[in-house]
Amino acid sequence: MGARCCKFSICWWHSPLKPSLLQPSSDTEKDDKSALPIFKEFSLEELKDATGGFSTDNIVSEHGEKAPNVVYKGRLPDDTWIAVKRFTKSAWPDSHQFTEEARLVGKLRSERLANLIGFCSDGYERLLVAEFMPHDTLAKHLFHWESQPMKWAMRLRVALYLAQALECCSSNGRALYHDLNAYRVLFDQDGNPRLSCFGLMKNSRDGKSYSTNLAFTPPEYLRTGRVTQESVIYSFGTLMLDLLSGKHIPPSHALDLIRGKNFLMLMDSCLEGHFTNDDGTELMRLATRCLQYEARERPNTKSIVTALMSLQKETEVPSRELMCISNGDPKSSEPLLLTPMGEACLRIDLTAIHEQLEKIGYKDDAGIANELSFQVWTDLMQETLNSKKQGDSAFRAKDFANAIDCYTQFIDGGTMVSPTVFARRCLSYLMTDKLQQALGDAMQAQVVSPDWSTAFYLQAATLFKLGMDTDAQEALEDATNLESKRNKK
């Protein structure tokens, strides 16, 4: 899996047990539009009981130190499975604002949404309760598939259902959606994609409208800091690029390829032969319209739905079949058995990571070094090797600024390729709080050595530092699985 993508996610909520359909209890009025119970206020005790006292074993998603809002899986007394989002004490200081926002979002009912079914406001506690989605996120199915990639017909269906969800929200006065991305799209018990209702809540005091990756942020948001209807369309465009490519590609890079009429380079190679050029071109054209720099030039949700309707394939095939979801229960996730390196990354213990990298040494470069042994050794090669040796000495002495300089000279020399040097410079960047550079090096180490667990461990540590805990957990899982497979050989 590791070689396919450098973007990570963890299942937003996942359970070994099959969730029952959310049916209203006998004493609760049934919503005419769905089988959901009428939106209600839960007591804190009810949600404590449902989540095992907010047990860490039931945590399925969390969002970093600056806004550590945690999502738990839970089960109500009638065996209904729920997802409970618990905010920090500072997130919603005004209980009235929180309650009003929750009630407004709770009025929405759609089979295209993972609907909000309740809330709790008790003292400083602020919690949202939503439908439970058992079949992972779009990010998981696009970027981290295990057996086979998502089919073309299913990708088209995801785009349509998501556009329909946004149109439903827009027509019901909730056009603004915060940080629309592949982690916000979830799959229900039938394999149908649903848009998470949590993104419909207006920003809380400590929240952000967009994730830390500015490459995917609408240009007008960078200028004004405000989310608009057109901003949501831009984010929908980035999601369409995800669906087309099977990767999380920055829009600027994708648009450059499209302008150069190289759009086929963007298409997921796993889809070769499964779509016509006309269909691919049409979907790419729609994504391009959504990604226009000027907000007023982007289409509205109604026209997007119309365009996508005409592109649908295999409409008679159920989503469960297209997604290859068995009729049995979703398989349970076994807890990760972390190695010392994994434990260090989880704790963001950079000193312990340094010790592990020192212990590993350069043994993972062995294959690459053997290939280079046939090259002609020039003065330039010797100078390049000297810079690496100087970098190693500085790294060993924890002189990380000097290590960065020396390793950069070695890398820029371009004579040799060493994943370990990228890994060591990555940690040196981490030690000096240059987080984006660190993430770039961790990803480059993966490119050079796709099955090297250390590259994924370092990505996990960097993502934890960036507050992107969902991505970090996925990277940590990948690293652990790769190391386990290697140890079994």
Question: Biggest sheet: strands, sense, closure?
Answer: 6 strands, mixed
The helix fraction, in percent, is: 40-55%
Tally of alpha and pi helices: 19
Find the structural class using helix and strand composition. alpha+beta
Percent range for β-strand residues: 5-15%
Features:
6-stranded mixed beta sheet; 489 residues; disordered N terminus; alpha+beta
Structure description:
- Helix 4 runs antiparallel to helix 6 (229-245).
- The chain has 489 residues and is α+β, with helices and mostly antiparallel strands.
- The protein contains 19 helices and 9 strands.
- 45% of the residues lie in helices and 8% in strands.
- Pfam families: PK_Tyr_Ser-Thr, TPR_BSK1_C.
- It is an enzyme of class 2 (transferase).
In a few lines, what is going on in this structure?
The protein is of the alpha+beta class and 489 residues long. The chain has helices at 44-50, 95-106, 138-143, 152-171, 219-224, 229-245, 251-259, 277-290, 301-309, 319-322, 340-347, 350-360, 366-372, 379-396, 400-413, 419-431, 435-448, 453-465, 469-488; strands at 40-41, 59-61, 70-75, 81-86, 113-114, 116-122, 125-131, 185-187, 193-196.
